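Archive entry. Fields below.
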Amino acid sequence: MSEPVAANANAALQRAAALLFIHAQTGLHPGSGTALGTVDLPVQRERHTQWPVIPGSTLKGIVRDACRRAAGNNGDLFAVFGPETAEAGKHAGALSMTDARILAFPVRSLRGVFAWVTCPAVLERLQRDLKLADLGNAGFRLPAEPGKDKALCHADSPLLVGGKQLVLEEFEFERTGDANDLTDWLAVRAVADEATQKRLQSHLVVLHDDDFTHFVRHATEVVARVGLDYERKTVKEGALFYEEFLPAETLFYAVVLASASRRNGHSQSAGDVLAYVQCHTPPYLQIGGDETIGKGLCAVRLVNGKEA
Amino acid sequence: MASQPTLDQRRASHAWEAVQRAKQKQGPHQKQEPKKFGGQAKKLPVRIMTAGLGQALAFLKAKGYAPGLLAELTDWINQRMPPQGNEPKDLLERIVKGNADVLRRATDEVLAYLLWLNRFAEAEGLTEETEAS
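PREDICTED_STRUCTURE:
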């Protein structure tokens, strides 16, 4: 969180930060265009981890659009998000956003319907991001490293079969401990809805990095889509394609950094910029493709430094 | 780095040979329509992604449309992940009896291999009309 800046300090050095939590409520398709693989329309993934990602540029565009609708296309909007393209050279916006990173991924479970899985590599990165944003001092303790085929979750989790076993997709895991510090921290920040907070606490599972990566690669939804011949109601030649969706309940987070306004006549501080975004961002945003077939509806929470 | 073909090159090379064998009805492909081979290979990746590798291969075996496809997959996986000790040599059996790690590795490898196999099958005209089977 930004310290109060000394009166004579350069206002541009001022910074405020927040975390934007994203909770998919319907299938999510942050697309990457066409591909040569099995799936014609895959979701975007980080090159080195193969984990799904929502680019910062996508996210900023969506938040900008939401704020424009809420507060109007005026000087304040330009101060926060940057001017329109024709005037792009005049000044930069005051808000920057990182790519939204995967936080927890829902996986089918034999008991308890589904589990949110995460892993040490994700959590270490979250802690690094908290530091990057100066939100570090109010973090959570990293849970112990679970081994391969091992899992950490709440001792009374409804996911457990026979007290210590978890069956996720077709894989079995042995519970070796809990990650309650993490789940307590996460539940109250990542989601607003009380029932979901409770569910997150009992259904969050920390797995080995490799086990987690296998799930985010292979436990997405692959959906066949077709175009029908209008007259015959049969599939048009060549109109069959496969699209990949991240399942509903997937959790992401992005780091939001604000500096003071650089726009002439708009002297918002970094804190004001963040407050503007917080005030005008609605609780739900539509992210990624296929808006008109009900995809990409996400609950979002902007948790600023004081709360994080 | 040693100057040998990359993993992807080796997959491609094996897949190319497999498609040629299927086209000429050689080896395990003798009693199989070449276009059935291509058709089943095309449907396999999505079946794996939706139902899992074991289920998808069991379905393929039960239907018996393309026995050569199972044989080629088994051959390639056994090259990549040579069976240890008294581990079975048949891919489906290996998956059923193996541990979770065998399944995870085989899933990744089969999917990567099928990309090449399908590309070459298409290039060689081993495609079926879109119809249910």
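CURATOR_NOTE: The first helix of chain A runs from residue 56 to 71.
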